[in-house]
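Practice problem: predict the structure.
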Amino acid sequence: MKWILILLTGAAVATAAPVRPNILFALADDWSYGHASAYGCRWVKTPAFDRVAKEGILFTRAYTPNAKCAPSRAAILTGRNPWQLKAAGNHVPYFPPEFKTYAETLAGHGYFVGMTAKGWAPGVANDATGKPRQMCGRPFNKHAAPPPATGISRNDYAANFDDFLDAAPAGQPWCFWYGSTEPHRGYEYGSGAAKGGKNIADLDRVPGYWPDNEVVRNDILDYAFEVEHFDTHLGRMLASLEKRGQLDNTLVLVTADNGMPFPRAKGNTYEVSNHLPLAAMWKRGIRNPGRVVAEYVSFIDFAPTFIEVAGLKWEQTGMAPAAGRSLTDVFVAAKTNRDHVLVGRERNDIGRPRDEGYPVRGIVKNGMLYLHNFEPSRWPACNPETGYLDSDGSPTKTEVLKVRGRFWTSCYDKRPADELYDLRKDPDCLTNLAGQVDFRPFKRQLFDELKAQDDPRVLGTGRVFDEYPHAHESHRGFYERYMKGEKLKAGWVSETDFEK
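Answer:
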């Protein structure tokens, strides 16, 4: 921990003990890259996120390895890719007891650890004795407040954070997980314009995979309004830390679990799905604040970062070996050797025969995205007859299914085994270059790394992901039960989404 000692004291004094920082991890629910004013976005205002970026680091290439809540959060908590986490590589799983989280680890090494609202979810996480685990820390959820729109939670996240700070023992470092439930759906339609003062003309563009009309534009503004709600509570938390004199020695890391809850985004493996906002601030620990870092960063890097700044070595934690690497080198240097990230998915949601998933692995490198679809005969967003259930119900989804054409093809049609996109020219990932550009170097590196990580999908045993049971009884065998005429409702799609 010599680098911490240098940053906190200005000199390496062997006899001095480094002051372990507090950790505030702020996680929005379904927020895509670029949708913050720090990135130049005009239609969403995020002054708190902007402050973290200005007084710390703004990352421009941060990716989750899986763009769905449970597997993304599992990667954050463990430092391992979802395909290294057995059942936790799926959505709504039984979390394997063998995989310890950084929050559980810090709680056992002198940190006061807490959280509010959404932690690791959805799924079931019990220890080996069947007792529920506190995956992200002790819950603080007492306070509620009238929401600014009907789609927004009543959780008063910032007030719950104050309760946590009041409960933290004096002189003891703490770690807090702020798990907003925004901008997850549903939204109050028109709230962005009516209550957020937004105008559809403020949108510079609508992605090429959705119809550009008033309905879709309003849906995007409603999403933006909920992003701003997340940011408002973050701002209150920063102000509270400043008032208490704790901000300077608190590592604040702000991001989201996966991309926006729109067709082709959340749950997929494209740029809008896995590429996420990220900013970090730590006044006593980040050198040359105000930097913009273009290195590739993965969510599997977060747990190693938190463990290291807490003064621990990974070998002390009892956690399974991490695939990620600490970001502390980025904190002290403008340039590091981080030139790619891996992405993928397994079973995200229900709605395919035999509870099968849609396995994908990919690599982002040199501004290119290569994807390998292991089962191209399957529907990527689940089957049409059960409503494309791996795509949240929304006005935009309804418009895509109504207008059809190239929008339906981009969002819901079957896909080839190999996809290659130039993200610099085609961030919407609409022009597949796999038939024109040699993708074999990307595929070779991807599969070599997956083999080194013991990924069952490349070792010939990938079927195991389809066989892991759903943690929600109502999800098991959904497709077969629905097709037999059982009155089943997924709860997150519109009736018109089901194709007969």
